[in-house]
């Protein structure tokens, strides 16, 4: 249930109105005003364009602004070769303390209530550049909803690894893992189901 309410009535124009106790979804609570008026951001890291495509569709469905997490040094095809144990991405993912630099393209996180955070699943977790992004900004009191793209795996260790990069007052939840393409209706249905 998106919202629990104690009373439903009709206003003077015959329109339904509700007195809410609270609005809840994914174990976070929002007031009535926050539920309907929250300002949203879809932030994402995309190495090949797949996550970028998903992020754009989610932003459209959610009425959210879009922000790309860009590496200071772009990844090459060789960097992304997961079969090469010495490729850049392989080395970064072997070292959990790795924090690849992100491009100087600041975003004002303080103006958003809900942040969708997208990434491809690498080595059963989020790329460490996503930790760089989370550690650069203050997400205290924010709701962060994860979405990921993957050929076959789920979120795996992503949530646990990313929660280490934010304060305890940040509410971070798994949202959706995308396998293949989704139509616009599917995105809208998913976003609406979140109650944000």
Task: Give an account of the 3D structure.
This protein has 196 residues and is of the alpha/beta class. It has helices at residues 32-37, 50-62, 88-94, 128-136, 158-163, 184-194; strands spanning 3-10, 16-25, 28-30, 40-44, 65-68, 114-120, 143-149, 171-178. The two termini are 12 Å apart. It has a five-stranded parallel beta sheet with strand order 5-4-6-7-8, covered by helices on one side. A three-stranded antiparallel beta sheet has the order 1-2-3. It folds into two domains: 1-36, no CATH class; 38-194, Rossmann fold (3-Layer(aba) Sandwich). Helices cover 27% and strands 27% of the residues.
What is the highest CATH level, the class of the largest domain?
Alpha Beta
Q: What's the quaternary structure here?
A: single chain
CATH H-tier superfamily of the largest domain: Flavodoxin domain
CATH topology of the largest domain: Rossmann fold
Helical fraction: 25-40%
E-strand count: 8
Which helices and strands, and how do they pair?
Blueprint: E1 3-10, E2 16-25, E3 28-30, H1 32-37, E4 40-44, H2 50-62, E5 65-68, H3 88-94, E6 114-120, H4 128-136, E7 143-149, H5 158-163, E8 171-178, H6 184-194
Parallel strand pairs: 4-5, 4-6, 6-7, 7-8
Antiparallel strand pairs: 1-2, 2-3
Provide a brief overview of the structure.
By secondary structure, the protein is α/β, with parallel strands linked by helices. It has six helices and eight strands.
């Amino acid at each position: 249930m998106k919202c629990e309410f104690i009373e439903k009535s009709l206003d003077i124009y015959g329109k339904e109105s509700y007195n809410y106790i609270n609005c809840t979804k994914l174990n976070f609570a929002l007031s009535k005003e926050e539920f309907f008026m929250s300002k949203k951001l879809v932030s994402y890291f995309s190495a090949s364009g797949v996550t970028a495509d998903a992020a754009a569709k989610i932003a459209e469905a959610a009425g959210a602004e879009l922000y790309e997490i860009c590496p200071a040094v772009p990844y090459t095809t060789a960097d992304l070769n997961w079969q090469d144990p010495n490729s850049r991405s392989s080395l970064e993912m072997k070292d959990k303390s790795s924090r690849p630099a992100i491009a100087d393209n600041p975003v004002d996180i303080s103006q958003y209530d809900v942040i969708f955070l997208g990434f491809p699943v690498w080595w059963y977790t989020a790329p460490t550049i996503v930790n760089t992004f989370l550690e650069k900004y203050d997400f205290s009191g924010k709701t962060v909803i994860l979405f990921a793209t993957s050929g076959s795996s789920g979120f795996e260790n992503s949530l646990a690894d990313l929660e280490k990069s934010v304060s305890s007052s940040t509410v971070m939840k798994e949202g959706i893992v995308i396998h293949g393409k989704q139509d616009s209706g599917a995105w809208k249905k998913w976003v609406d189901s979140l109650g944000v």
